[in-house]
Design goal:
By secondary structure, this protein is α+β, with helices and mostly antiparallel strands. It has one domain: Aminopeptidase (3-Layer(aba) Sandwich). Helices cover 34% and strands 25% of the residues. The chain is globular and about 45 Å long.
């Protein structure tokens, strides 16, 4: 029997439910299901309007990994005259496919698409384990994010 091959494809609006299921896979309480449904309703039109760039890794017609970026209307800054900034998100790999370079390959595809769109900055929030991959890809640590809840 030959090894299972991995193929890559762009995320489509039809993948919104799947992206939401991965992003919020932590529980089955009603509020968890509602959060997944809200996220799917939010991300599907973003994909259709090219405000979300996503790539998926598939094995035997099953999604086993993914990476994406939301394009944000950030406005020009001192370091970037462009109006858009990308936010890397939804990076994951099923346990059986980890440590094979899959996440890096998917993130690189997202980075390439963001660059091709003329966007010059990609932000992200990384776990300690994920930060190793991102540093290897050229991402640099910055001050931690702060938030004011209104």
């Amino acid at each position: 029997m030959s090894p299972i091959k991995l193929s890559f494809r762009r995320a489509a609006a039809d993948d919104a439910v799947w992206l939401a299921a991965h992003r919020f896979s932590f529980g089955e309480a009603p509020q968890d299901r509602e959060l997944r449904e809200r996220y799917a309703r939010w991300v599907a039109p973003k994909i259709e309007r090219a405000e979300y760039i996503g790539w998926l890794g598939c094995a035997e017609d099953r999604v086993v990994a993914g990476a994406g970026a939301v394009l944000l209307d950030w406005g020009p800054t001192h370091h970037d005259a462009g109006a858009l900034r990308a936010r890397l998100c939804n990076v994951f790999t099923d346990a059986a496919w980890r440590r094979r370079g899959v996440a890096g390959a998917l993130v690189q595809r997202v980075v390439d698409d963001v660059r091709a769109a003329g966007i010059r900055a990609i932000g992200l929030s990384a776990s300690d384990a994920g930060a190793v991959l991102y540093r290897r890809m050229g991402f640099e640590p910055s001050a931690s994010e702060m938030l004011l809840r209104l």
